[in-house]
Amino acid sequence: MDQFNSKGSYLSKIERKEVPILEFDNTVPAVIEPSKETARIEIPEHAVVCFFSEVIDKLKNDGKVKLIINLKTEMGAHPLYEVEYLDKKMVVFHPGVGAPLAAALLEEVIALGCNKFIACGSAGVLNKEMAVGHIIVPDSAIRDEGTSYHYIKPGREVEASTEGVQAIKRVLEKHKCNYIIGKTWTTDAIYRETPEKVKLRKEEGCLSVEMEASAFFAVSEFRKVIFAQLLYGGDDVSCEEWNSRRDVSRKEIREKLFWYAAEACLGL
Prior knowledge:
GO molecular function: purine-nucleoside phosphorylase activity; uridine phosphorylase activity
Shape: globular
Order of helices and strands: EEHEHEEEHEEEHEHEHEH
Structural class: alpha/beta
Largest sheet: 5 strands, mixed, barrel
Mean pLDDT: 93
Organism: Clostridium oryzae
Keywords: Glycosyltransferase, Transferase
Strand content: 25-35%
CATH superfamily: Nucleoside phosphorylase domain
CATH class: Alpha Beta
CATH architecture: 3-Layer(aba) Sandwich
EC number: 2.4.2.3
Catalytic activity: uridine + phosphate = alpha-D-ribose 1-phosphate + uracil
CATH topology: Rossmann fold
Low-confidence stretches: none
Distance between the termini: 44 Å
């Protein structure tokens, strides 16, 4: 039975916490539920979440994509494309930058009908010995962002889908790629990656820092879909002074990583 206070107002069944983000509620449906707002369509179940806009632009310029639908936010259109590869069809889309937007777009793509995801993106490295382009496969992520706390119980880490990680490993080993599997640090605040925070994350075993992985993993766990991610080492945040390492070209690295992600995704 619903509970009311002395003024007749509804009382929540959620226990109030000192910090609001810890007030987890797994109730389904939410007030705005993706499956009610986004109608299911005929769409491939495999999807590559690609952070590399120039790779998507090249696919468009080469005539290799077909527009499926435009998702929309206040930023404008977020197109979903169909691409054929290895005699199979897959969805390709850019998720934006940052956990809230990326998670919201992932929710809508799941509601449309996709359920197997591999993402490809870049990350800062926490070890200066890790070269630009070195491939990182995160099997877990430190949840130093806000979005994941609305999908799974509060906790320090969340894991990637084991099935997705294994699919990535098979492809990288097939192509004889050097890679490292480990933990990534997901944060909302790129300008608050302080030296002490970096030291703490290194002590926890983090290899990299980025802005979306833990949210992706939490959404996929909540919605019961497969999600794993490929990252390449980019800028270096391991020292007190940031090194952008922009003198090293990423073009070939990013394109190769996309096709590895596509192959791994279609292998699921």
